[in-house]
Amino acid sequence: MTNEEFLKLAQECGADLVDNGKSDDLVLLFPSELLTLCREIERRTLERAAEKCDEYSEAKWQAYKLSPANHPDRANQHVEGQSDGAGDCAVAIRAMIKESE
Length: 101
Description:
Blueprint: H1 3-12, E1 16-18, E2 26-28, H2 31-66, H3 77-100
Antiparallel strand pairs: 1-2
Helix pairs in contact: 2-3
């Protein structure tokens, strides 16, 4: 997350930004806003992790189904299992997001 993304997210969560005359701003948060910000950062981080699992799952599925006939990944049960496992991991991560809402 870039500084700009963090500051934008902090404002979305109710923070006030204060120009302190330096290169970076101060972020003023009440405890409830800080909790909201922390939860949103956690949610976004978990979603990014789930997306990585989806990407890995898709790559392994493509290797399993679309590799050339003589390629060791083609129709390889281990590669299919890697795809399934990564997909299951994405689902589990997204369930964690739902639990925290």
